[in-house]
Amino acid sequence: MRTAIVNESERTPNRVNILILSIFHLGAVAALFVFTWKALAAAVFLWWLTGSFGIGVGYHRLLTHRGFKTPKPLEYVMTLCGALAMQGGPIDWVATHRIHHAHTDAPGDPHSPRDGGWWSHFIWVISGTAQDHDKAVLMRYTPDLMKDKFHVALNQLYWLPNVVLGALLLVFGGWSYLLWAVFFRATYGLHATWLVNSATHLWGTRRFATKDDSRNSFWVALLTFGEGWHNNHHAYPTAAKHGLAWYEIDTNWWIIRTLQMLGLATSIKLASLTDGFELEATKTT
Ligand SMILES: [Zn+2]
Ligand SMILES: [Zn+2]
User: Fold this and answer.
1) pLDDT computed for residue 285 by the predictor
2) Banded pLDDT at 282 (limits 50, 70, 90)
3) Is there a domain that residue 235 lies in?
4) How far is the CA of 224 from the centre of ligand 2 (A)?
5) Any idea what DSSP says for residue 216?
6) Is 218 a member of any domain?
7) Structurally, how many domains does the chain consist of?
């Protein structure tokens, strides 16, 4: 039995997050009773826009790791799409993820499966202060984003774009659009992202001998547009391309590559396989 790395005070229930996530899960179940193909199509499009363009490319590869550069207006559009995923404000999300990289599967990691698989999947989100970091933590981990008024404002009001979107969907499309394209889509997207924190630190293959438990998982990659190549990512966190072999499908990278061809993504960082980490297969210890 591995020792727990989260202390008891971080395990107290976070009632606000429990309430919000309960409402979203109930809304996702209610969606099943008002199914229409058009509402499903809207949900799939918004899943891609928020989960891939917003979270994978925007929140993760751009804001957290600065794997590439893009003009500020496009950075803000991406961040807005990320906010629509209902995974918290951009600065809180980035701080949590940078803390995860700084302390992966060690004391200080907010969501390591060493504290339990369900803990790493979602219990950490409904416990303690979850992603509500105090200012000192944000100044330490996200000083770059704290200087930007747009990101600071959206960090507080990240829920507002979804309220506006939901109202528009209800008025112009009805309940089926609201329940599918907001509640089902966001709930599905949350679990997909959470699988990166849980499943890809538990199951899969390891190409690199990183010090953490990170794994490459094809099925998590399929559900997250390429974020499941998580061992590659922990070996080369700033690389904008996570899929390193031809069969490691990484459609988030395809977005960045397309932006590059349009002149909208520059200074792209890529994994250099000739230096840095040794391959797991060649590990001698
Ligand atoms: Zn990780
Ligand atoms: Zn990362």
Assistant:
1) 35
2) very low
3) no
4) 13
5) B
6) no
7) 1
What mean pLDDT is reported for the chain?
Answer: 93
Gyration radius (Cα) of the chain, Å: 19
- pLDDT > 70? residue 185: yes
In percent, how much of the chain has pLDDT > 70?
93
Using an 8 Å Cβ cutoff, are 60 and 82 in contact?
no
> Which residue from 233, 234, 261 is spatially nearest to 248, judged by alpha carbons?
233
Residue 111 Cα to ligand 1 midpoint, Å, equals 9
Nearest to 250 by CA among 215, 224, 279: 224
Q: Is the separation of the CB atoms in 69 and 265 below 8 Å? A: yes
Q: Say if 219 falls within a structural domain.
A: no
- Cα of 93 from ligand 2 centre, angstroms: 11
Ligand nearest to the CA of 214: 1
User: Considering the domain boundaries, does residue 199 fall inside one?
Assistant: yes
- DSSP sequence for 91-157: HHHHHHHHHHHHTTTSTT-TT-GGG-HHHHHTGGGGBTTTT---HHHHHHH-HHHHT-HHHHHHHHS
Question: pLDDT tens digit string along 63-113?
Answer: 999 999 999 999 999 999 999 999 999 999 999 999 999 999 999 999 999
Q: Which two tokens mark 220?
A: 């998590």
Identify the nearest ligand to the CA of 242 by its number: 2
Task: Looking at the CA of 201, name the nearest ligand.
Answer: 1
Taking the model in full, what pTM does it have? 0.93
Q: Which ligand is nearest to the CA of 59?
A: 2
Distance CA 11, CA 228 (A): 27
pLDDT number for residue 2 = 46
Range of the domain at 148: 11-203
276 sits in the region (left: phi over 0; alpha: psi -120 to 50; else beta) called left
Q: Which two tokens stand for residue 63?
A: 């804001």
